[in-house]
Each structure stands twice: as structure tokens, then as C-alpha cells.
Amino acid sequence: MTAPLIDPFQRPISYLRVSVTDRCDFRCVYCMSENMTFLPKKELLTLEELDRMCSTFVDLGVQKLRITGGEPLVRRDIMTFFRAMTRHLESGALKELTLTTNGSQLERFADDLFAAGVRRVNISLDTLDEQKFADITRWGRLPQVLRGIDAAQKAGLRVKINTVALKDFNEDELITLAEWCHSRDMDLTWIEVMPMGDIGNEDRLGQYWKLSELRQTLGQHYTLTDLPENSGGPARYVRLEETGQKIGFITPLTHNFCESCNRVRLTCTGELFMCLGQEDNADLRSALRNHPGSNAALEDAIRAAIRLKPKGHDFDYSRQSVDGRVSRHMSHTGG
Ligand code: SAM
Ligand code: SF4
């Protein structure tokens, strides 16, 4: 049996997030600038390479794959890749195949995703107001995403909504969004905005809405019960006693969740980031491309990378300047 991936801090690595493209059909203001430059296509891992890469991680004990981007569903023929991963679900090696999407293409792909074995999907949506949606995503249109959500639920996919908490933007929708998610039987997770990438003129500190504040306001409307942590991830959950629904908070900046981190991230160009908040990465693409006939070099490169997984990240807004800033975009590393 192959030894599982364990990092220097004794954390087993069982979760891989894979960015399959840096491209997107939206231009969310906190994620990209409007005239974002994308990578030349030849830099990207091909679908076959993505398959080999993910399958090697599964061989090494990864049990959960989350496909992300950019917008994963705008990558040409991406369903071929999802269908290829089905074999790992069928063998039992992979416990979950899932994705994070902006929802724009779900009307087209929800049934195919379900057929490939996907059962849950995270859909990003920051507002229920059409004009605000167009403003924040620049190129996105709310009705299209709502149709995508309908299609996902109709196909049998469990939906979780991810909402970036933005001061003076969606503070006033805290309760509306909770009620809307409840009415549709969807979980909701709020995410603090992170200092990733050069996004033009946006002011990170101006955008930053602390989730502790958000939680406090939510507590004025509902009785909150903290739920025990079990995801190994950065989310903390509360239950709203009045409705029974679950609300998550991802607080990379105010809560240090690194001690239970079980994940690594593969970019669309084959770099492995051991931590979202650090620049350190390993080039797995060379190990893959230089050894087309065998995965031994790739396995060695993965193990060597995991040995370098840092203890934690250094994002810090507490000194009222954006410290620990990371120059690459979220769409490159995959959110
Ligand atoms: N395009 C897909 C989507 O929007 O869901 C997947 C990729 S996107 C980079 C993944 C998640 O990262 C989204 O929920 C998005 O809102 C979030 N995100 C992007 N930039 C962020 C930032 N600077 N801080 C916090 N979250 C961010
Ligand atoms: Fe695209 Fe997702 Fe970034 Fe928005 S957050 S620009 S949808 S990658």
C-alpha cells in the first residue's frame, strides 16, 4: 500500500482543490480587474494531464476533489474530465467530487454533473439584487445564475451558496439572503474578502466586513448555536434555531484555522500551492510532462511538496494595512 500524504505538522492531506482554468465569464470586482490578462492556453494542463495529476493524488490518498477556477464550467470539454473522475468514485477511492462555480453555466451542465457523480455544488452569489449583481460581477446577470441554481436543484444537486461579505454592499442583505437560502433548502456560507491579486482601484480595507460583526447582527435576529467543527476546513458553522438552517463563516483573516488544514491546491498550470496564503509552490507540471510513461517522478514531487507545507498563513489586516498580501489572483490558485 502507498503511504498516505502527511505533512510535517502531522496533518493528513486528503483534499485537493484544482483550478482547471484561470478564465471566467464574470469579472467580480474583488477577484479580477476588468481587463484581466489570462494565461496563454499552452500553459494550461490539458484535460488528460489534469486526469493524470488528480488520479495520482487519489492514488496517494486524496479522498475529496473540488474543481474550481476561474470558472470551471467555461473550460472547453470540462465534462470529459468530470466523467473521467467518475471511475475513482466508483472504485471507492474518491469519496467526493465537487465544484465551486458562479452558476452561469449550470443550466447547461447540472444534469451531466449529477450523472458524473457530483452530489453537491458551491455556488457563489453575493446579492439578490439584479443591479447590484451586475455591478459586483461586471459581466454577470442574476437571472442566468438563478436559472442555474434551479437547474442544479432539479438535477438533485445539493447547493451551498457562498457569499463574499462586502461592507456597504451586501450588509443590508444579511437577513434576506438567510431567508432566501432557507426557503430553498440551501446552506449559506459567508466569506471574508482576502487580499489576493492586483484588482485595480478597489480598496481592500474599504471592502472588508468582519464576519464577527456580521455574526453579531445575525444574532440580533436569530438565536445562534455554534456547531462543532468537523470539516477540517476554514469554515465555522452556526445553526439558526428559529429555522434550523446552517450558516457558515470563512474567516481567513480573523480566525486562524490552519491547525486543521487538510488541503492543498493545484493551479491550472500545474503548480501545487501548499497554502492559499503563501507564495511557496511546487512545479508538478515538469514532473508530469518530463515523464510521460510513469507517475513515479510526479509522486516524488508531490511527496516533496507536502513535506514543505507551511504551518499557516500570514494574512493580517489588524494593523490597518494589508499585510501578508499575495500577488497571484484567486482565480489562478482556485478559490
Ligand atoms: N468562479 C467560481 C466562483 O466564483 O465560484 C470559482 C472560482 S472563485 C475564485 C471561488 C470563490 O472565491 C468564490 O466564492 C469567490 O467569491 C471567492 N473569491 C474570489 N476572490 C476573492 C477574494 N479576494 N476574497 C475572498 N473570496 C474571494
Ligand atoms: Fe470569476 Fe469566480 Fe472570480 Fe467572480 S469570483 S471573477 S466568478 S473566478
From TrEMBL:
It catalyses: GTP + AH2 + S-adenosyl-L-methionine = (8S)-3',8-cyclo-7,8-dihydroguanosine 5'-triphosphate + 5'-deoxyadenosine + L-methionine + A + H(+). GO terms for molecular function: 4 iron, 4 sulfur cluster binding; cyclic pyranopterin monophosphate synthase activity; GTP 3',8'-cyclase activity; GTP binding; metal ion binding; S-adenosyl-L-methionine binding. [4Fe-4S] cluster 1 binds at residues 24, 28, 31. InterPro entries: Aldolase_TIM (IPR013785), Elp3/MiaA/NifB-like_rSAM (IPR006638), MoaA (IPR013483), MoaA-like (IPR040064), MoaA_NifB_PqqE_Fe-S-bd_CS (IPR000385), MoaA_twitch (IPR010505), MoCo_biosynth_MoaA/MoaC (IPR050105), rSAM (IPR007197). Keywords: 4Fe-4S, GTP-binding, Iron, Iron-sulfur, Lyase, Metal-binding, Molybdenum cofactor biosynthesis, Nucleotide-binding, S-adenosyl-L-methionine. S-adenosyl-L-methionine binds at residues 30, 70, 124, 194. GO terms for biological process: Mo-molybdopterin cofactor biosynthetic process. Its cofactor is [4Fe-4S] cluster. [4Fe-4S] cluster 2 binds at residues 258, 261, 275. Binds 2 [4Fe-4S] clusters. Binds 1 [4Fe-4S] cluster coordinated with 3 cysteines and an exchangeable S-adenosyl-L-methionine and 1 [4Fe-4S] cluster coordinated with 3 cysteines and the GTP-derived substrate. Its EC number is 4.1.99.22. Pathway: Cofactor biosynthesis; molybdopterin biosynthesis. The keyword S-adenosyl-L-methionine applies. Pfam families: Mob_synth_C, Radical_SAM. GTP binds at residues 17, 66, 100, 160, 263-265. Residues 8-228 form the Radical SAM core domain. Belongs to the radical SAM superfamily. MoaA family. Catalyzes the cyclization of GTP to (8S)-3',8-cyclo-7,8-dihydroguanosine 5'-triphosphate. Monomer and homodimer. This is GTP 3',8-cyclase. It comes from Puniceibacterium sediminis.
